[in-house]
């Protein structure tokens, strides 16, 4: 009878150990999932920030092109005014 009860205790201990192991695995898995979720959120924020930066750079480039056009137009106008001034001086 003594051998039989020891076998039951060993089986009980093994079942407890298995339950504890399962519990710790679940805990680790939950931690990993949470950590992974946090990483995904951080990555998403970074990507959005990057796309916003690209958008701002594009806007800055368009503004520069517009400024360049305005400068070229002004330069052209100044050249024409210089020609008119020269003509007026001859008269």
UniProtKB/TrEMBL annotation:
Its main location: membrane. Keywords: Lysosome, Membrane. InterPro entries: BORCS7 (IPR032143). One of its GO terms (cellular component) is lysosomal membrane. It comes from the Eukaryota. It is found in: Lysosome membrane. Belongs to the BORCS7 family. This is BLOC-1-related complex subunit 7. It comes from Anhinga anhinga (Anhinga).
